[in-house]
Amino acid sequence: MTTSSTTAADPGAGSAERLRSIRRTGLSIGVATGLYGISFGALATASGLDVGQAMVLSLVMFTGGSQFAFIGVVGGGGSALGAALASVLLGVRNTLYGLILAPSLPRGGVRGLARAQLTIDESAALAASGTTTAERRAGFWSAGVWVYVFWNLFSLLGALAGQYVADPAAWGLDAAAAAAFIALLWPRLRSLDAVAIAVVAAFVALVTTPALPAGLPVLAAALVAVVAGVLPARRRPASERSGKGEHGADEDGTDEDGTAHEAREERG
Fold first, then answer.
1. I need a surface site. Which of 173, 174, 194, 234 has the fewest CB within 10 A?
2. What is the CA radius of gyration of the chain?
3. pTM for the full model?
4. Other residues' Cβ atoms within 10 Å of the Cβ of residue 149
């Protein structure tokens, strides 16, 4: 038996390669996501924060959407309370991620605290792509750690540069923030209900922006999702509710144990 055939037959070899691939993906996600930190840092200092304040916000809050919401409200002349409410509202989703990932990750001690800090969209998504506990943990830690490192590094660069940029919009930094939000939202618009909620929420935000103080239009738009969440779900055919097609097979081609279906819902 040759060495190559031994390796191919060894299930541990494939598992190790899979873990290395997940960790490489985490690194690439960290670099790509971290680049948005330049936009945050520059916009933060342009909104009136100094470099130290911007970095404390980035290091401690560490959830991009909430950070952009905070400086958006502050930069628009809103109150600190409005900025905090908008930030907390956008950060609630991380709590839901934590509940989903709880069975696979540490809950107490230093690692538990680190896990709470690193629970973000990217780490949750890469963890959800794993099929074993080891893969989910590798995905979570690799994406979470690398995003944290590069996000704060680029936030610092952006904050330093922002002190010398009179108009961040002239450099497209305001558009970069919007692009980051769209990049997060787009993969979640996989059903007509989600699209409808997004459209109505955007409309509410546009209508209320001229009338409400800065920060409140975001909360008003979020109420759309809250109301939609408490309304009774539309009745669907039994085959659609069970996720099976006309011939009894899962529409996504998975086995009846629904493993892939559950993973897909976690990513959503």
1. 234
2. 21
3. 0.64
4. 14
